[in-house]
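Forwarding these from the shared drive since the link keeps breaking.
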Amino acid sequence: MGAVCCKPDPIDFDGEVNLFHFVLLRSVGKGAFGKVRVVQHKQTKDLYALKYINKAKCVKMKAVANIVQERRLLEEIDHPFVVNLRYAFQDDENCFFVLDLMLGGDLRFHLERLGSLSEEAVRFYTAQIGSALAFLHDKRIIHRDLKPDNILLDEKGNAHITDLNIAVHYSERRMLTGVAGSMAYMAPEVLAKKGYIYTIDWWSLGVCAYELVFGRRPFRGKTNADLTYSIGRDPLQFPDGAEQKCSREGMMALAGMLERDVTKRLGCRPKNDGFEEFKKHPWFASIDWDTLEDKTAVSPFIPDSKKANFDATHELEELLLEDNPLKARKRNPNQDLSNLSAEMRQMEEQFQAYDFRKMKRRSYYPHNQQIISTLTATSSQGVIPSSRSGTPVIGMESMPGARADYNETSSIPPPPIPTTKMRPLDKGDALVAEAL
């Protein structure tokens, strides 16, 4: 008699979602303790981006609290211009986020390849991201790390915000003071440590739009102190020949978002009045907001579908260098939570399963309080990982690959730098500082 081959257990698609529900496809990204790969749901055949985070590394890097917070915030969100959560689950080794698939690359990738984008394309993306920010702020969520690395394009060229790793809920009654994010995109009120709310995201959007149009950031410095001073004090200037790249209306919009007085900053009027003011700005006169938000408007920039819009070396690393490649594993049915560390137990209990087909989205506000532990972020959540940021971070030297287009050192003494505790991050991660 021939040997009887063991048949795999049937997959229970009616039960709780797990990794057995997905076909694992190519690896496309890597962060400090998380990786990203394309997956296909075995039943629906839909493609997604799977971000998976090693629990042991998460504990070692003291990032359990904000992995749980990111999972909770993503459950609240469903918007056309956000990389939305579709499933969440865990096994004994990893926590998993299954997210919308983005095939067009992040804006950092395209900015480095092209040098700059057309004003028409930047206006289109600024409108889309503005719509997403208004939605997040209506949910009382601040992103805090908006930059080209964290804006992903789909195959049709629509822009989406990703990476809520340091996002938080906010309240006007108790403003935030933590210095968190990528320094070059931080608003003056963050660096001043006098308290801030959602208005900081509109400043970051202004920095992104300026950089995409002109290929350089509006405020620069050779050192962290210089950059801090520039963001807080230097007048906004446009490069020589700016009028050849950007209309007067466009420069007015950029200046509006980069207004240091938050009561005058574009997009920052109380309640929803700020976004209405934003939409009515002359720069957006050509935008049809209805077709924009239902994604029937044609993007001025379409990513090249014949080229890989991500670093192909991630696939080789997974094949050749990974000691413990990802595969579906059954959970230990006899696991005793009392034998786990407090951090591991927190993940087991608080990183709950989510299935968008079976569960309604809900808000954890006001119970989801700000995370105040030292933060270390993973790479972007869509298919395309963040590109090299090179953004100076408080308390850290410039990262490898940093841009060299900074201003000369200012002779005027800069304001004191807030005391911070930093952790070095892998290239491509969100650059994060959290004030002590």
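-- next protein --
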Amino acid sequence: MNKPTANAVYVDWGTSSFRAYLVDETGNCLDQRASVQGVKKIDPGSCEAVLQENIGDWLEGDRVAKILMAGMVGSDLGWCAVPLVRAPCVAAMIAEKLFTAQHSQCAEIQIVPGVASCEDTGHVSGIMRGEEVQVLGGMALQNEKNAVFCLPGSHSKWVNVSEGSITSIRTFMTGELFDLMCGQSVLADCMRHAGAEMDRNTFVAGVECVRSDGNLLEAPFRVRAEFVADPHRSPVERKSFVSGVMIGSEIAAATAEMKADRSGELIVIGSQQLLSAYHLAFTRHGHSITCIQGEEAFIAGCRLLQGRAPKTAS
């Protein structure tokens, strides 16, 4: 049996992490690399050197003809600032605006532009860089042209798709606010050394707390009151409760504006840890969802864009 031949490298490069996937011509992942060298953690102007450091051996002998990058690498913090495509937009419109980067590598390097959506007034209300690739991949994997996508993370994105077109983007600062509460707020001492473990029961209690009361500003302080005056929970339980409050609040706010008669699926794309937490929270809110692993969606989206990119002169 012939060994699969490398065809392209897909790079998901955000503010805090770098992930690269070596794929063959059918989109199968042959190898992958990951580091904490997000664009906000490296020296300005060093993106090409960091890319070479992480995947230089993949590029030896002209094995790869194309490197496709997405995420904050296409912002003013990264390789270069690539103009955002305005919604509504379909895959072909994004592929048409792939930006060819200046570099010293043999392979062609292109950066996905990202997407911006506007209010009725014409002012930009939502942006995303990198998540649009996962949304396109999710549509392709599910063969779904009408859906609401939730992409949890530091800045969770909720993306509406109608007839295959990205129409609107909403951003919830769920992950960043949760990290600030756990690390820098008055609640930090209550959750110190909790780690990444989640206690299911207290997570659900947090989701239910905001589902019934709807008060994001009041609910998290309950762990402080318990810690000071009636300590009976562990740091893991307190952290799980606050996580439930944050994720529950996001889902309550986002789904409140979804049309009751919306067509298509509610699709969540992310890491296994986040998918598990969001699936539990969505269930408590009475919503059924389809879950897709983030890496799978990213690779599928990159392959779609690569296939629809305008041909460049050789």
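The chain has a mean pLDDT of 92. Residues 235-256 form the longest helix (22 residues).

- D.
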